[in-house]
Amino acid sequence: MRIADGIEMLELNWGMMTICPTVLFDKQESILIDTGMPGSAPAILELIQRAGIKQRLSTILLTHQDIDHIGGLPTFIADNPGLLVYAHEKDQAVINGKQPMLKIPLERLFGLLATLPKKIQSDFEAAYVKPTSANVNRTLVDGETLPFAGGIKVIHTPGHTPGHVCFYHQPSKTLIAGDAMVIENGELKGPIVALTPNLRAALQSLKKLNMYDIETVICYHGGRLRGNMNERIAALTDRTS
To answer: How many CB atoms neighbour CB 47 within 10 A?
Structure first.
């Protein structure tokens, strides 16, 4: 779904869930935000192609460490030498395979991996089980503006994970929210409680978002929502403060 010039929301049905990675692009390059589950990289690339985005994939931005956001990363790295991968420093060690994932042990993933092609298995194991190099080669800093697609503001929103970030695409006034919020039946809601270890911090993080003029929100779970977004986000924090 084309959100605005230079921004495309993908919709990928994966098992029992639909996830929404986002692609930002300009004349020279494309930037992918989040990479789906293990094995989903080919499907994401197909969706990008269907959207008519032909610019070289140069960069991946990760909102946080959860497996449905970083699972496809090893395949993208293996197939794209020189790819830039950004994440916040507080999730960096997990994404580099140096610390265990916060919410799911690797052992629970082996059953899933066994159903996938051997290359995807080997890519995943090389990245997260026995890493020989860092997956993340750039660190995100709260408040910085990344020079992609007209400018992307980094907003550190801890709580769902320590290094969770949202991205604000300045030209289109679009907030890529990751898992800081979800959309259910057209209603904006806060993070999923059962999957948010520090709910208090996550709700406090939502207050930072109203520093920005937001016209559109993209939630990784739920897709796109428009209309009175700052008021809707403020209502979430008012109800939960």
So the answer is: 18
